[in-house]
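Entry
Fold in token form

___
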Amino acid sequence: MADFIPVDEFEDHPGIPDGLQRLWTPHRLAYISGENRPTEHNDVRCPFCVSPTHDDAEALIVARGEHVFAVLNLYPYNPGHLLICPYRHVAAYIDATEEEAAEMTAFTRKAIRMISAVSQPAGFNLGMNQGSIAGAGIAAHLHQHVVPRWAGDSNFLPIIGQTKAVPFLLGQTREIFAGAWDEA
């Protein structure tokens, strides 16, 4: 174990464990602080508008449809946490076109089949948080969460450490899921 590092020197020694054995998750600060969070009418910085303009591997896109795409959540609740997003910058489910809503449903169903084949989860959480007051991290762009769940996947880390341990890199998960998408 590394020597004890005083609290005021943590920033000078990133990645070195301290005397309290903290699990550092500095990547989550962008999410917590709302960095680059788009507004309802501003899609310039919206990650769900920008992602489809990049290469699938770079953007962590698993699959593309005509009206929606499936992308890995950058801040997953569990390994394999997918988001189904319309290409169009629209905030509310009731404002989605019939085609967008139908393809979101079809992609959600296909995502469940694909994740089930790849990871054999015991269940799923599905959901859309409409508005920031309802918990939407990016309220300005509609997205459906598909979160695989396993028995015992909630342990002391989220309760005590307010963080989650995810055993796969997002790029690895995207590669596995993209390869299995057409089979689902």
